[in-house]
């Protein structure tokens, strides 16, 4: 039967996939990775800002965000959604474990004259006191919300609404997908962050979740040197490293480069999931 336990265990199985499992638990490694590329990701956020703004405007239209809202953005990074949220809410707290990401976010907030509407907090999400401190608890594409426990904790901190954004189906980054297949010999499986798991858990728990889907395409032009550094660091998190791996990554990317630049194409559909923790479906006996 597809009950809460079924979906909780299915989510666990997705995280235990051999392609993904080596990186879980490596919190320090991920922090170093994000800190190393924080400034670069902020530049990417500027380029793709219209997409994230459209998603937040959809939440405003649905009444999830309003000018009086206080928001906690879990796993905020360099401000992908934090800045669009701050433009529509009263105040946003961006939470992350990567200090350099938060430093860059503060710089981006100053650049957009939003420092009075935004604060940053370097902490592990699970260490926060479980008490209703925010009108909206928000998280997007973050490992911080990856199981039943972390999902339900969102309810404990919210005074009004929770919002979780995850992938709907495969998250396809063309170069990364092809490179991973080149290194491992098999195509990758990316299901651990699929929105189906939290959606179905919430549904089984009678939280009446709402969901909308957004599809987008992004193209970034990066130097060959950056791509080699970035993907060498990324695959190291999955225990793919050493001279042979480094040579394969360099050769693969060099063969795709034109005038020492590579194009990175991202195709994705995401699910924007929101619900009110104080509202559950009534079961008639």
Q: Outline of this structure?
A:
The protein has 285 residues and is an alpha/beta fold.
Structure overview:
The chain has 285 residues and is of the alpha/beta class. It is 43% helix and 22% strand. Strands 1, 2, 3, 4, 5, 6, 7 and 8 form an 8-stranded mixed sheet that branches. Strand 4, helix 6 and strand 5 form a beta-alpha-beta unit. The longest helix is centred in the N-terminal third of the chain and has 24 residues, at 38-61. The model has no long low-confidence stretch (mean pLDDT 91).
Distance between the termini: 20 Å
What would you call the structural class?
alpha/beta
What oligomeric state do these chains adopt?
Answer: single chain
Using the coordinates shown, work out and report the CATH topology.
Rossmann fold
Shape: globular
Low-confidence stretches: none
Number of helices: 10
Describe the main β-sheet briefly. Answer: 8 strands, mixed
In CATH, the architecture is 3-Layer(aba) Sandwich
Which characteristics define this entry?
eight-stranded mixed sheet; 285 residues; globular; single chain; alpha/beta; Rossmann fold
Architecture blueprint of SSEs:
Blueprint: H1 4-15, H2 27-36, H3 38-61, E1 70-74, H4 82-88, E2 91-96, H5 99-111, E3 118-122, E4 134-140, H6 148-157, E5 158-167, E6 172-173, H7 174-184, H8 196-204, E7 210-223, H9 224-236, H10 243-256, E8 261-275
Parallel strand pairs: 1-2, 1-4, 2-3, 4-5
Antiparallel strand pairs: 5-8, 6-8, 7-8
Helix pairs in contact: 1-8, 7-10, 9-10
